[in-house]
Amino acid sequence: MDLFSIGQKVLAQQPFSKLLGTELVEFSAQGAVLKIPIRDELKQQFGFVHGGVLAYAADNALTYAGAIGLGVEVVTAEFKINYLKPAQGDFLLARAVLVNAGKTQAVCRCDVYAVHAGGETLCAVAQGTIAKLARAAADEGT
Amino acid sequence: MDLFSIGQKVLAQQPFSKLLGTELVEFSAQGAVLKIPIRDELKQQFGFVHGGVLAYAADNALTYAGAIGLGVEVVTAEFKINYLKPAQGDFLLARAVLVNAGKTQAVCRCDVYAVHAGGETLCAVAQGTIAKLARAAADEGT
Amino acid sequence: MDLFSIGQKVLAQQPFSKLLGTELVEFSAQGAVLKIPIRDELKQQFGFVHGGVLAYAADNALTYAGAIGLGVEVVTAEFKINYLKPAQGDFLLARAVLVNAGKTQAVCRCDVYAVHAGGETLCAVAQGTIAKLARAAADEGT
Amino acid sequence: MDLFSIGQKVLAQQPFSKLLGTELVEFSAQGAVLKIPIRDELKQQFGFVHGGVLAYAADNALTYAGAIGLGVEVVTAEFKINYLKPAQGDFLLARAVLVNAGKTQAVCRCDVYAVHAGGETLCAVAQGTIAKLARAAADEGT
Fold first, then answer.
1. Contact D41 C18 (CB under 8 A)
2. CATH number assigned to the domain comprising residue C57
3. Helices and strands: H and E segment counts in chain A
4. pTM for this one?
5. Crossing angle for the helix pair D3-12 and D51-70, to the nearest 10 degrees
6. How many independent structural domains does chain A possess?
7. What percentage of residues in chain C have a pLDDT greater than 70?
8. Do C50 and D14 touch (CB under 8 A)?
9. For chain B, which chains pass the contact test of at least 3 CB pairs under 8 Å?
10. Which residue of D has its CA nearest to A127?
11. Domain that holds residue D48
């Protein structure tokens, strides 16, 4: 099975990603892109996409980017996110790249865009560590 | 209206928090606690709560903690989260405290626990900045 | 050799810590405390201690806290720091605690105080990951 | 005075940057680059550059990148750094870019390289928030 198909299979196995309507748009050596259609259920009290959705998007895209270097048996160990602009429009695109892969961990970066009639707005940027699941993986990480 | 009631009203205005079933458990000068019942829809492919849910919980609890110092017209400017253990059980508790409040920004910390038959497990820890919404607030943050 | 003596020995082997004048004040199961006398050479252009010194203090104290759970052959994998107040006075105290230790990694938190005639001021808070050095440790981390 | 000259003047006013031997290599709309010659005094116990030096380099370069969008009266509000590889060689280069500038805050990213006979090694990546100093600026940040 090619990388993209494997990635789609993993996403389909995440009930939370199904709840949010996430789609895998790209998953190759060049990076990973997730798309999340914006709908009212994903918003906060000011009418913008909830920061938690952007954090989820970044977390998940970072994990995919880490998988490029480590294989798909990975979890996010940690990440940080800076919110730049309110997210509104038709859908989110979370674009992540692998920065560095060691034997058991990878560091990745992600940009989260909101796509709307007027173009794309960079709404958040993230950076984090992805860890390979070991035999005793149930001990650490999510 | 007392602080807790204001907090509940804000939460009720967040469609994404409704989708996740979040409840406000505590909101006082001592801190903020959010509760999220764990259900299958919130999980990832390994059967644990998705990291994105923990990130959402941390983000939202941090915002409440920031509101203690800045008032409820606030958004998360940035945060980081470290995942410690897989989250499973009956519900999540995200407990956040205000560390420092300036005039327009506050720094807060949050611990996310999974509560299960055997007790509580600390699953993630977070730290971040909450920003007061200014007139031109639509420019920055979520 | 007891834990505190081992910690002192490690610190004495760090030329950069010598350059900064760092002293180990506490190193026990309860946490690690580093002290850095404030002198003009450690300041920035506004007359306060340079943020880089606070970041160094946090980084190093976090590493000590991680060593409580993992042993002293450790390095900082990543951390984040929030600056709260300008640091001025007689010396800095960086107090770090172990939050969670897995087999190869630990997550720790640190508070950096400036101590002056009027008492202590919390100047920065940090959170990060400490990694155990493996045989192939030269591959990753600092 | 042109931007680069202003940047050099600021650096010359930072005693800690003098102690570390930091030089400003580039400071333009395209980004900021700081250079730090590697010498024994900057190392840790394993013979590599101390993580605290890399953190300082990232912190300072991020501040310069923020100044591109906000003017030079700025401080670092927060940042996170991931260490990728041990730093050794002749000098460090911290290259930072402005990602987004609002009215009072900017978000920036930084890559820290070690330059040696064999080329460049990416040793750390960072992301953080730079804040404009306000009248009441002495209240917050470093």
1. yes
2. 3.10.129.10
3. 3, 6
4. 0.95
5. 140
6. 1
7. 94
8. yes
9. A, C, D
10. D127
11. 3-139
